[in-house]
Amino acid sequence: MKKRVFTSTPSRICLFGEHQDYLGLEVIASAVNLRFYATAEERDDKIIRIRIRDEKFHYLGAENTGGEYEEKIIDLSKPIVYDKQRDYLKSVVNVLLKNGYKLERGYDITMDSEIPIGKGMCSSSTMIIVLIKTLLEMIDSPDKDDVNKIALLGFKAEVAEFNEPGGMMDHYTSAIGGLVHLKFNETTEVEKIDTVIPGSFILFDSLERKNTLKVLADAKNPVLAALEDLKAYGIKSIRDFYHDESRLKLLDNLDEVKKVKLAGSIDNYRILKKGEKMLKDGSFSPEEFGSLIRAHHENLRDALNISTPVIEKILETAYKNGALGGKVNGSGGGGCLYVYARDEDCERILNAVKEIGYPGRIIKQDTGVRLDRTELA
């Protein structure tokens, strides 16, 4: 009898703190019921054979009805050599081996996903998290249920292993699940918020592919440069403006581009703190929550320039049909966006946006990485 496991992990939406992690600030994100799935079965050799859904199924709602997969072979009897930068399936195995996990036999692994690729929904991070969970389950590691360790291993496999810039929001939110508050400083502080948000979110695909690195650079670099310019005035962080608003007059020392982008980032930090209070102290209001998300997006659009005409068209259609708030999700410049709405308004909003040509899906908060079931085959 051979062991077979079925695992899954969620995608996420960023509620507050978009484009704040690289500033050493905070993020509040929610895992959602759009999941990455894996099935694994033991082999009698040292070959890990991974079949993963073909990348042509990259848009929201794409179904792999024909069972089309790409295949990756990892031979545990040989040194692992990356075929390319971001060779994530191999990097997962390599990081586990480097961290002392005993992968001594092969597995047949099949991976399917509901998460659109390249659309700001952390498809690569979720792929990594679910593969780590799967392998830890197969070797019955004591760490198989340690979601914080799984998240950190995921960060190492995706970011540190390739010396790339990147944060930990995706890995921690997917692994832990629910509503998560992350504080980024010299270390990452993780707090789970035990609040279930009433109503629903509706995720939409703009059908626009995005240049993540360019969008990030255009948004990030002027803000970091502005903070550097203001060091001479004692400014160390955006938090300095939040704690002492009289310092906002220092923005007049910046050129117009830096001033606008820094001002938008400061306001988004203020919005995050308002959202944090509402989610933690029991004062939740759907209307206020929606308005904070909408204000967050307006800063991302007007100050950081990460929206697009298509995203604005979708949002405007959703607002006309009852959405309370909405924003671009992820780095921006295309990809996915979501709106927040009362349950009774969701189908109307979803249908109105579909009529103008864009796919959507109603989503809810969800649990983190999990073992769905185990079988003996």
Topology:
Layout: E1 3-16, E2 26-42, E3 47-53, E4 69-75, H1 88-98, E5 107-113, H2 123-138, H3 147-158, H4 169-176, E6 179-184, E7 188-193, E8 200-205, H5 212-229, H6 239-243, H7 256-280, H8 286-302, H9 309-320, E9 325-328, E10 336-341, H10 343-355, E11 360-363, E12 370-376
Parallel strand pairs: 3-5
Antiparallel strand pairs: 1-2, 1-12, 2-5, 2-6, 3-4, 6-7, 8-10, 8-11, 9-10
Helix pairs in contact: 1-2, 1-3, 2-3, 3-4, 5-7, 7-8, 9-10
How would you explain this protein's 3D organization?
- Strands 1, 2, 3, 4, 5, 6, 7 and 12 form an 8-stranded mixed β-sheet that branches. A 4-stranded antiparallel β-sheet has the order 9-10-8-11.
- It has 377 residues and is α+β, with helices and mostly antiparallel strands.
- It contains 10 helices and 12 strands.
- The radius of gyration is 21 Å and the shape is globular.
- It starts with a strand and ends with a strand.
- Helix content is 36%, strand content 24%.
- The chain has helices at residues 88-98, 123-138, 147-158, 169-176, 212-229, 239-243, 256-280, 286-302, 309-320, 343-355, and strands spanning 3-16, 26-42, 47-53, 69-75, 107-113, 179-184, 188-193, 200-205, 325-328, 336-341, 360-363, 370-376.
- The protein has 2 domains: 3-195 and 368-376, Ribosomal Protein S5, domain 2 (2-Layer Sandwich), CATH 3.30.230; 200-363, GHMP kinase, C-terminal domain (Alpha-Beta Plaits), CATH 3.30.70.890.
